[in-house]
Structure formats: structure tokens, C-alpha cells
Design brief:
Elements lengths: L6 E5 L5 E3 L2 H4 L9 E6 L4 E6 H12 L6 H11 L2 E5 L5 E3 L2 H7 L4 E6 L4 E4 L1 H23 L4
Antiparallel strand pairs: 1-7, 2-6, 3-4, 3-5, 4-8, 7-8
Length: 149
């Protein structure tokens, strides 16, 4: 499975299309096809996820009891936050207006690899978010990896 890493500056065209950086596009095995899932992130960003990873989430959700009110609420909220996208030969895909609004994307984007998925951020939102979060990184690095940054 692909392990996406790195941070890249990208442009969106007037139709809301973004081209994945070639280094990220190269990590998507051809056997997975060109369909990926675009999901609204929990922060003001978008997540681009290979379908093999999406299917893991969907399988977990399929095993939940639909007679439970919380389960139905969660599924409704979860599935409305995602939309399949097809990458063309260059790694370009269209971002819907709803998704663009969620992430506050206009002409530029920061694309970062975070392991099994890719995040897409408005550069100003990303700088603001990471500026606040960067101070936590050293402590979390020690917590999760057992060493200082």
C-alpha cells in the first residue's frame, strides 16, 4: 500500500481542478485504478484516500447496527462528507464546490502526504493550523515514536 509523504504547493484551475504532485501520483499503484475518495476532513481540509483504504472504513460501518440511532446519525454524517473522484492520466481531478468551500480553497493549495491518505489545505489555513500545532509535535513525537524531534 502507498505511504504518502511530503508537502507540496499546488494550483487549482478556474474549474476547481487540482493536479496531484507527480511524486504522489507515482505512489498510487496502477492496480488500484484511478478512482479515489475525496472526503471532508475533520479540520478545514480535504482528504484524498485510495479506495482500498476507504473500503476498510466502509466495511467497519457496514458491520454496525442500523437500528441504533447513533449509528444511523453517524453513517448519515459520514457518507455525506465524501465523494468519489477519478484521476485523469496526469493525476488531475475535479473538486466540487461543496468541498472547495469546506476547505476554503480558491487558487492555491498545500498538498501533504499523511501515510495512507493525502490532505489538501488552503495555504493560509494550513499555516495557521500548523503554527498552533507545531509546538505539540516534539511532545507527540516522544509519545508516539519514543524520541525527541
Amino acid at each position: 500500500m502507498a505511504s504518502f509523504t511530503g508537502e507540496f504547493e499546488c494550483k487549482l484551475d478556474a474549474k476547481g481542478r487540482l493536479v496531484l504532485p507527480s511524486k504522489m501520483k507515482a505512489l498510487i499503484p496502477e492496480s488500484l485504478g484511478q478512482e479515489m475518495m475525496l472526503r471532508k476532513g475533520l479540520e478545514p481540509c480535504l482528504e484524498l484516500i485510495p479506495m482500498v483504504e476507504v473500503k476498510k472504513d466502509h466495511n467497519k460501518l457496514a458491520s454496525l447496527d442500523d437500528t441504533d440511532d447513533e449509528v444511523r446519525f453517524f453513517k448519515r454524517s459520514f457518507f455525506r462528507r465524501e465523494s468519489p473522484v477519478d484521476l485523469d492520466a496526469t493525476g488531475r481531478f475535479v473538486i466540487s464546490k461543496t468541498m472547495l468551500r469546506h476547505a476554503k480553497l480558491e487558487k492555491e493549495a498545500i498538498v501533504i502526504g499523511i501515510g495512507t491518505k493525502i490532505e489538501i489545505w488552503n495555504p493560509e489555513c494550513y499555516d495557521e493550523f500548523m503554527g498552533k500545532e507545531e509546538e505539540k509535535f516534539s511532545d507527540l513525537n516522544k509519545k508516539f515514536l519514543g524520541r525527541s524531534a
